[in-house]
Amino acid sequence: MDEPRVLLIDVGNTNIKLALAVADGLLATYTLPTSLQESSDTLGLKVVDVCRHMGLDPEGVKAWVVSSVVPEYDPLFRSAGEKYSRAPVYFVPGDIWIPLTNQYANPEEVGADRLVTAYAARRMFAEPGLIVVDFGTATTVECVQNNDYLGGLICPGILSSLRSLGGGTAKLPRIGLELDAPDLAMGDSTVTSLNHGFLFGFASMLDGLCSRVRPYLQGPVRVVATGGYAATIAPICPSLETVRPDLLHRGLLYACRSLVFGASGVASDVGEA
């Protein structure tokens, strides 16, 4: 008998990232653009296509587990899951509790993605202090002490900053933000000036922020980076010690294990990193 499978869905402002998983890990990931023109049917049919690409019957998915920062999508995914997979749809942290003590002044203000990535890092790493840097539409810096989510910082995102700059400056060329050298170069072309300005600029910002938030944490501290540009920035940003691009999906998997698979939801996952 095939292992039960779950669909993990990260609904962000720029992309929707899907991951198909079994109880002990991720099988495959897919990325779709976020568009407010979607309906429950268009979303459901896209998920059907993803399942078929993997040779999986959509009704073979045991549950959909969703982290969303786009409220308009929430009823669409709930309806799509029930219609196209005949599966329950769980939202984290709304339907599935995240076992971190949320120290925010107004805990409901914390985005689901921030809380889930912090929880994943807590499950994966043993250090009492954790700093989690997520390169998404915004760049976020989260602080975790033992089992407490302390809060963090929200900064501009790399790609959104580049798009904003390009939208107001007609003569600037398009660039790919690829690291072409290990050291900062004095830009002798607009492309090099932009590329190194953005990459080394964000690296310096994060080195500075990490050094400033470390005093809020006690004991050994590990810095974990995730998101689209984590692997690009890490080689030139000494503060980013560990890169885990799949941190949010792993957080969703850890959160739903007990409910969906009947596995222990409290056992340590240290060592999976």
What can you see in these coordinates?
Helix content is 34%, strand content 26%. The protein has 273 residues and is of the alpha/beta class.
Short description:
With 273 residues, the chain is an alpha/beta fold. The protein has seven helices and eleven strands. About 2% of the residues have low confidence.
What are the defining features of this structure?
2 domains; Nucleotidyltransferase, domain 5; 11 strands; 7 helices; alpha/beta; five-stranded mixed β-sheet; about 270 residues; six-stranded mixed β-sheet
Number of helical regions: 7
Question: Which CATH first-tier class of the largest domain would you pick?
Answer: Alpha Beta
Compute the separation of the termini in Å: 29 Å
Number of domain units: 2
CATH superfamily of the largest domain: ATPase, nucleotide binding domain
Mean pLDDT, as a whole number?
88
The share of residues in extended strands comes to: 25-35%
- Structural class assignment: alpha/beta
User: Radius of gyration, Cα only, in angstroms?
Assistant: 19 Å
CATH architecture of the largest domain: 2-Layer Sandwich
Shape: globular
Series of secondary-structure elements, N-terminal to C-terminal: EEEHEHEEHEEEHHEHEH
CATH topology of the largest domain: Nucleotidyltransferase, domain 5
Low-confidence stretches: 264-268
Helical amount: 25-40%
Can you count the beta strands? 11
Instruction: Trace the largest sheet across and list its strands.
Output: 6-9-8-7-10-11
Outline the biggest β-sheet: 6 strands, mixed
